[in-house]
Specification:
The chain has one domain (2-129). 97% of the residues lie in helices and 0% in strands. It has helices at 2-88, 91-129. The radius of gyration is 37 Å and the shape is rod-shaped. The N and C termini lie far apart (75 Å).
Length: 130
């Protein structure tokens, strides 16, 4: 009789432990599933951000290429203007006039580049915020 009681107690304890184990396994599966979903969402967000940065980088490279071309064109223009000025101005005025012309062209180019850069940075900030 006492053995039957002990056996029943042990069986009940086994059932209780099995139920706890089952509940713990279900809880673990839910947590694992949630972690996988979060990981997948984070990975997708990072891939999207990476693609956006890649396209922004390509756009900036393109813009830089255009600026470099414009810089070469302006450098050629300055040399041509200096050559023209060298022939027209009196000798004592040539150097000062050439320097002023260079400075004016540099300032104009610098202002254009700064404005374009500011505009591009504002656009990129707006994209990153959105």
């Amino acid at each position: 009789r006492e053995l039957q009681v002990q056996t029943r107690v042990y069986f009940e304890e086994v059932r209780r432990l099995q139920l706890l184990l089952k509940l713990e396994a279900e809880s673990h599966d839910k947590e694992l599933s949630a972690a996988r979903r979060k990981h997948d969402a984070d990975a997708h967000a990072m891939r999207s951000e990476h693609e956006a940065l890649r396209s922004q980088n390509a756009a900036l490279d393109d813009q830089l290429g255009r600026w470099m071309d414009e810089n070469d064109e302006l450098r050629t223009l300055v040399k041509e203007l200096e050559a023209k000025l060298a022939g027209k101005a009196p000798a004592h005025e040539r150097d000062g006039l050439a320097q002023r012309t260079k400075q004016q062209v540099r300032e104009r180019v610098e202002a254009q580049l700064k404005a374009a850069h500011r505009q591009e940075m504002d656009r990129l900030r707006e994209e990153m915020v959105a």
